[in-house]
Records
---
Amino acid sequence: VVKADGYGLGLAETATALSQSGCSVFFVAQTNEALALRALLPEAIIYVLNGLPEGAAADFTAHGLRPCLISMAQIAQWQAHCQATKAHPACLFIDSGFNRLGLGETDIADLAGSPGLFEGWELALIASHLACADTPEHPMNAAQLERFRHALTQLPAAPTSLANSGGIMLGAAYHFDMVRPG
Ligand SMILES: *Cc1c(COP(=O)(O)O)cnc(C)c1O
């Protein structure tokens, strides 16, 4: 995760060093950061955490950017764009906490009941974010792990990601397929 100018260390410096060390998947918060990163790393997989802005799908696919879809409207927008062009990859971002950006329990139930919403685009990742991972003893960590696992049982099979830096330290149960250290 190289958002906020690589946490103030410089996007170019951090992303280049990470890429040279073998990192191939990057996360940024906003579209403008993703475009700057794309100019540096033509081959990298780049996810935009803040979601898909209205009307931005064509710009995203033109630059090979993957949105983290955080609402039913964004899923519909991505699906419509893909059905008009081709199947592009995106991430489903789940709110496993209690007030974070992302798809909530009602949305997940709606998705589970509407498999057609997954047609025409590539579900490349299912992710969520731990709110309190910097406090290992916080009960929220286990609660979010449980909610994330429960959401996964309702969704199509796809690679999964939950842990930020603090989450990595919580142990293997939190690691899933990919971690997102910042
Ligand atoms: C910022 C962020 C990260 C990285 O968080 P750190 O605590 O800096 O490791 C991971 N995932 C998401 C969704 C983020 O917003």
---
Amino acid sequence: MRVGLFIGLLGLVPSVTAYAAGLELVYSLDRATQGISISKNGRKFLSQRYSTSFPPQIVELLSDNTTTLYPDAAWNSYNSSDPTSNPRKTFVSVDGARIGPDGRYWVVDGGSTGVNGSTKLVGVNLTTNAVDKIYYLDNVKASDSGVDDVRFSASGKIGYLSDTAGALIVLNLTSGHAVRVLASSDSATAWFPMMYNGTLVPGYGGADSTLAVGLDQIEVSPDGTYLYYQPCNGGMYRIKTAYVDATLTNATMAEVLGDYAEPFSLTPSTGGTTIDGDGNVYVSDTNLLAIWKVTPEGRATILVQDDALLWTDLMWVSADKKLWLPASQMRPGSDGLMADGPNYIFTYPIDAGPSPIDHA
Ligand SMILES: *[C@@H]1O[C@H](CO)[C@@H](O)[C@H](O)[C@H]1NC(C)=O
Ligand SMILES: *[C@@H]1O[C@H](CO)[C@@H](O)[C@H](O)[C@H]1NC(C)=O
Ligand SMILES: *[C@@H]1O[C@H](CO)[C@@H](O)[C@H](O)[C@H]1NC(C)=O
Ligand SMILES: *[C@@H]1O[C@H](CO)[C@@H](O)[C@H](O)[C@H]1NC(C)=O
Ligand SMILES: *[C@@H]1O[C@H](CO)[C@@H](O)[C@H](O)[C@H]1NC(C)=O
Ligand SMILES: *[C@@H]1O[C@H](CO)[C@@H](O)[C@H](O)[C@H]1NC(C)=O
Ligand SMILES: *[C@@H]1O[C@H](CO)[C@@H](O)[C@H](O)[C@H]1NC(C)=O
């Protein structure tokens, strides 16, 4: 602001693209982009949601900065009006996406209510660019479930999926067996509507409605000891993964898992989180248009704040110690929380690289 004023006094036009120090605009995309994942050898994958006019899709961002449907056009071809469209073999409603510790690109398909086979976790082999793992979640989800993101255990053998109805799905990737836990826990419940740029987020239920979203963000500490999670309105908890993993075989533990949840940090309304190799959790603040850093000791500070950080969602930490910030530009409102482009992806320097069990 001050710099702009002095430049103004000199008679020059103040730059409107002066972002907060350290914040660098790297991509400007036509489609609203919710998330970015970067493979070990630098390939970039985007999940594109939040559009008023297009269905959600997955694309690879190529080196000439064009995009191509990923893993192919067929997986991105679902058409609910076409009876020959197969919801088991297409993305029906992609949400979170992540490269896992096994090097696969994992896509969470929240699916559609009443469409069998549409809610699933899909694994793409980045060498063959072919889907080689699919876990259908019909049997574990509830009627109001919104399955929307995934993280993995240190062994890479257990998947943790968030369910915005306010629950966690624990999935044994070896057997395909899954349990839905924390559904009755306050720690997974949206106890307040979300905030966006100073006000409550409007809901889908008419003029006076507000949007409240349950358990959404999840992270696993780099040593695999803790699972962090929170409802979208914030209030982050952590719980030992040993207890979480036991729910796969111990029905009593599945019932009482919430008793083991520890309050961790009073985080704000959030679009997305990520974690670095030192175990710092980054939390996008949809209200102050900022990114918070929460240390493993639970000390929370604002790392960077800028009006351009509009609904930053699925962030990524790269090996060159940068935090990648897809500011999805989602603007809550009567369109039902959708935005059209342009969409910006920023980077911001941090002190650590990726977590070995989170980013391949
Ligand atoms: C693609 O975008 C990157 C990041 O902004 C930029 O460095 C590069 O020059 C662009 N490449 C082309 C071919 O436009
Ligand atoms: C979806 O399917 C319907 C019925 O077959 C067809 O009329 C429509 O053009 C399709 N939409 C797209 C985008 O392909
Ligand atoms: C979906 O699956 C359920 C349970 O297997 C079955 O009863 C139902 O008929 C299926 N619906 C469709 C549309 O295939
Ligand atoms: C991906 O495919 C390659 C080539 O077939 C194979 O060597 C590799 O093990 C696969 N990756 C995973 C994670 O299974
Ligand atoms: C996952 O399933 C495999 C195969 O059934 C089993 O050996 C393993 O113990 C299970 N893991 C957990 C954590 O329950
Ligand atoms: C945030 O709110 C302020 C105050 O009403 C307004 O000036 C600004 O344009 C808003 N920003 C966005 C991105 O909506
Ligand atoms: C199952 O979990 C309950 C609740 O935490 C615990 O008391 C019990 O010892 C566990 N059972 C086994 C076999 O580990």
